[in-house]
Design goal:
mainly alpha; two-stranded antiparallel ribbon; 3 helices; elongated
Length: 122
């Protein structure tokens, strides 16, 4: 004989609310990308991404009604992700214009200044 399922099934309206929230966060991501906030764009984009990931993990992956062991593994995954993003951000923040021995400073993109053409081959 089949046993009853032990997980709680959410109501359909909850999934629709989560869907609407995810679409609103998607629109927020697109809207935030239209403004030049310097390094603030990365912070806003990561904040919105974390909010979307939490909604998906809690509701669509059913972690909200799972055991404590599942919560521990989900928290460990977020801790690992934050560690990786934090170390990446230290590298990103620490970078600047790359010095060159012959020309002083070299622009890292064409918009920052004129980059001379390289001499053609023999």
């Amino acid at each position: 004989m089949m046993e009853a399922s032990s997980h709680k099934v959410e109501k359909m309206w909850i999934y629709l609310v989560i869907y609407v929230l995810l679409m609103a966060l998607l629109i927020g991501t697109v809207a935030a990308s239209q403004f030049d906030l310097g390094r603030g764009n990365v912070v806003i984009a990561l904040g919105i991404a974390v909010a979307k990931a939490l909604l998906v993990i809690l509701f669509f992956m059913h972690v909200r009604h799972s055991s404590r062991l599942t919560w521990i593994f989900a928290a460990a995954a977020f801790l690992w992700l934050s560690l990786l993003l934090g170390l990446t951000m230290t590298d990103y923040v620490g970078r600047g214009v790359v010095p060159s021995a012959s020309k002083g400073l070299v622009a890292s993109s064409p918009e920052q200044g004129h980059i001379p053409n390289l001499p053609e081959g023999p």
